[in-house]
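G., the chain you wanted modeled:
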Amino acid sequence: MFGPPAHIEMHPMGGLHNRSLSEGGGSTVTFPYEVWTYRYIEGLGNDILFEFVDSGMSGNYRLALSPDEKDALLMTGYGMTMEEFFGSRTRLDRVRQQGILRPLDHTSLGINKSNLQLIEDYFKALTPPNIKYKDLQKLVGTRVHYEELPIGTRASIVWVNAEQFMVPATLQVWNRLLTYQPENDIRRARVEIYGAVHDLLGKTVYEFEDQVYVDDTGYRPFVEQGKSLYQHTIPLRSGRYKLDWVVRDVHSGKIGTSVHSIVVPHKPEAELFTSTLILADRIRVQQEPDPLEPFATLSGLKVYPNLQKNTFPAGERVGLYFEIYNFSVDSATGEADLKIPLRVLDRNGRVVQEIRLDHVGLTYLGERASASTHLYIDGVGDYRAEISIEDLISGQKKDMSVRFRIQDSSG
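Predicted structure as tokens:
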């Protein structure tokens, strides 16, 4: 609903928890839980925290309305708060007050809110935002395909936690097809974007909208040959979905639509698995890592997917990015040991390039690892990148491959 959070604090096993003073202090044992932090949510404010608790130990996390919902010892005589320890409050008092919500807004203003105000905040948090572009929304249900403004789209799948995946959905528009008008001493094109995700029953499970602009910088190749990318990250559970895009050039009224399916897999319990293998036009390091920014990853890289049917101009680098999950860690050293050779073959099966991604381009990030590289291919034609992932601790293996084309820039 609000996109990916700025930070996720994960406690998949629960365990010992030292309460903050606002929660009463003292120590207890918790159920598995996660805390999602958003820097800003319209209508709610800054520094918004959502706490999700798996009180049934089943992998089913639910939004917690009270800080005590994660306390596994609440109904026992253990895990006392400081007030309970010193006798100024009883455990029964705390159980009776479970209906008192914790503030979503963790600022001084949020702490001083009444319980009625906190209920209103939770109602706002669970209410989908209003859609402004109602006319674009209606076009999704017409089943009419618009090509006045041709667009390219792509969606990748990245694991987040036991139940959710992130789906970075990317849109591409050619700058030469947009209409530019004078605005504050520059020529600017404006584009309205609407997206909707539907399940197999046709139910809308996620919507988003935005307005973006493209400026004519005066550099002719940018307008005549360049393209602009837009990305929105969609949180989804395992399942099959349909993603509808509707895009409108504000100044000309031209409309473009696109529809494609998204299959979000189930995360295996112990089997080695990966994210989508992304072919990218560019991969660069974020100067100040921020996973909320478009094209950002949790590894601190920005990945700009290729939306030209896996085709790259001759002389340009071919970027590759993917993430790895469920690898084993050595019990003595606490370190993983992955072997990831990559080979590039031409259409005749001849190896033209070999790289060990575990030597360059591999980053470990807790329960995940990310691998990235740029390929330099000499010669036009069709190629196939083959990647083998071997977990040297568990012995598990996984193979991946992707086809791409190097094309003469004149053709």
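The domain at 270-411 is CATH 2.60.40.2550 (Immunoglobulin-like).

Shout if anything looks off.
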